[in-house]
Amino acid sequence: MKYNIALIGFMGSGKTTVGKVLAKSLDMKFIDIDRAISCKVKKTIPEIFEEFGEAYFRDLERSIIEEESADNNIVISTGGGAIIDNVNIKNLKNSSFVVFLDCDIETIYERVKRSKHRPLLLNSNNLLEHITNLHEKRQLLYEISSDFSIKINSTTNIYDSVEKIKNAYISS
Q: How far is the C-alpha of 102 from the C-alpha of 91, rounded, in Å?
């Protein structure tokens, strides 16, 4: 059995929310990679993107994922784009049971449509179309990077999801 659980999925899929409940139920530490990046740089994610660009953000993300993956007994909530970097996937796969929170587009849209802290969505003229296109580009990466996936929608019960993930993790 791998010693960590890493949650991957599109922005708004519930990685942080599920991750906190999952970590508590398994008596594991919880780490949100985006929050760790913000704390390290002392700036919000949109400020990092605006001031330094996406490449700088991705470098920070890779560094923190590598650092956190080296530890044990952690539930790691990744950013939605973490899977676009092969080094991130390698580090997560080597240390963690990787769970894909496979959330439908409509639920994602409803969860993120008013968000001001998601830089990849800020300048979109047609938000639903932008989300759909970005989601389609990443879907296969999420699928092939995960050890287990769980469907998420607007009616999904968080505690049911946590139980399914726990059971899959324990049997892995």
A: 21
- Smallest CA-to-CA distance from 156 within 110, 121, 122 is with 110
The pTM (predicted TM-score) of the whole model is: 0.93
Catalogue the E-assigned strands of 73-164.
74-77, 96-103, 148-152
Note down the domain range covering 136. Answer: 4-161
Residue 168 belongs to a domain? no
The tokens for 80 are 């939605």
Q: Smallest Cα–Cα separation from 78: which of 127, 11, 32?
A: 32
Which residue type is seen at 114? Answer: R
Number of domains in the chain: 1
- Compute the Cα dihedral for 119, 149, 104, 159 and give only its sign: negative
What CATH number is attached to the domain comprising 34? Answer: 3.40.50.300
Asked, for residue 172, whether it belongs to a domain, the answer is no
Q: pLDDT tens digits for 75-120? A: 999 999 999 999 999 999 999 999 999 999 999 999 988 776 666 6
Strand partners, 148: 99
**Residues 6 or more apart in contact with residue 94 via CB below 8 angstroms:** 69
